[in-house]
Amino acid sequence: MTECELKAQSSKLKARGGRPAATNTCRVCAPLGAVLAFRGIRGCVPLVHGSQGCATYIRRYLISHFREPMDVASTSFTESSTVFGGRSNLNEAMANIASQYRPEVVGVCTTCLAETIGEDTQGMLRDLARDASLPRALFVATPSFKGCQHRGFHDAVGAILAQTAAGGERLRQINLLAGPVSPADLRHLREVVDQLGIPTILFPDYSETLDGPSLAQYAPIPAGGVGLDQLALAGRSACTIQLGAVLEPGPGQVLAERHGVPLHQLGLPIGVAATDLVFNALAEAAGAPLPERLLAERGRLVDAYVDGHKYLAGKRVALVGDPDLVVALAGFCAEIGLMPILAASGAITGRLAEALAAVGAGGAEVLEDGDHQHIGERIEHLRPDLILGPSKSYTTSRNLSIPLVRVGFPVHDRIGAGRILHLGYRGTQRLFDEIVNTLLEHNQDESETGYAYL
Ligand code: SF4
User: Fold this and answer.
1) Is 80 contained in some domain?
2) Whose CA is nearest to atom 2 of ligand 1?
3) What is the predicted ipTM?
4) What mean pLDDT do residues 268-287 have?
């Protein structure tokens, strides 16, 4: 082993608390992120090129979170495709999808196996594009040994824009790349830009495909998503607003480099300060003031801060999840008097510490490439008053009797994960109330006498 390899291994071991393997991982695989992004395209069927188990795992994980049907096709590698390549599997899968689903587009991503054997998936799809009977395919390479769902999602968004957006005369419209947020968050962002009156390509938009109504008849491809015709116009927008603090450079860069669309990168709008930044940027792009309705929501939120701050002052919080969400939550917590003492993520960005410092939470211990066992050990050591994180943090919460407020992905032990609103003044209000009430309830439950009045 070379010196470099030894150093890399030793830093990985350090990140995992000296353990050679991850236990109860905090990261999900890259093609899952890509499948989520593909779900934000109208008429799209995601196809995972590689082992069938990977597609099953992705489906199971997404279904348990969104509680929606989730068709994810697979090229189902066998032993022989592992040795000789999966070209015939890909050809057969595309033909099957075309006849069974009749999609507008197939979103193809790769598993670790396809990447490890060096499949030229893009070249194979180029050959298939000559067959007019097949739907259009959009491709992104998603080797999970290079990154987790966070990376897979953003790489997919960049790859989709690279393959669909065209240049041309500027239009009075903007692109809004919101990141892997909840369907409720997407609906709220749509409501805000509609109120501002600015035509917006909000991408990817799985607010309907992953949180749709009950139907009498099963729809193999759910309604909703951004059409290829709309994506083609993304290169002509006046600007791109990209949400996510640790992205570097992020998918919006594709449009900046290829079509000269100015890119503005901002953190997720959680908290008054962060929401002011994003909503004011949207208002500026729209050339319109913030509507009274949004200002009223802001006013109510500030009023809630006044009412609730005394229950939060000095409390310590551990934050777990996707790095962009962790940074946004840290800024919000710092704003309301909660002290972030641990910021943990399964992703490896190398930018978490810097991004936390930029939102006023530089004092938090930073843990990247963490697994839930290691994160749990740090939480046990640091003893915060509260955990904000996914349902995977429940075991730690239960073992240590530290209350958990569920945010982000995945939330597998509750219903309504797709309807958790995190963003904007309204999402912050919901989060603030839940945090305060969770702490109050915990105090009540722990009290020997009990009380029913504050
Ligand atoms: S092998 Fe790779 S692609 Fe398949 S489930 Fe595991 S991490 Fe994901």
Assistant:
1) yes
2) 112
3) 0.99
4) 98
Q: How many domains does the chain have?
A: 3
Supply the pLDDT for residue 97. Answer: 98
Distance from residue 153's CA to the centre of ligand 1 (Å): 15
Residue 327 lies in a domain: yes
Nearest Cα to 11, choosing from 450, 367, 399, 293?
367
What values do phi and psi take at 175, rounded to 5? -105, 135
Specify the residue with its C-alpha closest to ligand 1, atom 1. 112
Index of the ligand 1 atom closest to the CA of residue 112: 2
Q: For residues 114 and 146, is the Cβ–Cβ distance under 8 A? A: no
| Residue whose CA is at the smallest distance from ligand 1 atom 5 | 54
Are 48 and 184 found together in one domain? no
What's the whole-number mean pLDDT along residues 316-340? 97
Q: Are residues 296 and 438 in the same domain?
A: yes
**272: in domain:** yes
Lowest-confidence range among 20-34, 146-160, 216-230?
20-34
Q: Indicate if 270 and 179 belong to the same structural domain.
A: yes
Q: Tell me the CA–centroid distance for residue 278 and ligand 1, in Å.
A: 35
For residues 454 and 441, what is the distance between their CA atoms, to the nearest angstrom? 11
CATH code for position 151: 3.40.50.1980
**Domain presence at residue 267:** yes
Look at ligand 1, atom 4, and give the residue with the nearest C-alpha: 54
DSSP 291: P
The CA–CA distances, whole Å, from 159 to 106, 140, 305, 452 equal: 13, 6, 41, 55
Note the pLDDT of residue 21: 74
Determine the structural domain holding residue 274 and report its residue range: 174-286
Identify the residues whose C-beta falls under 6 Å from ligand 1.
29, 31, 54, 57, 111-112, 144
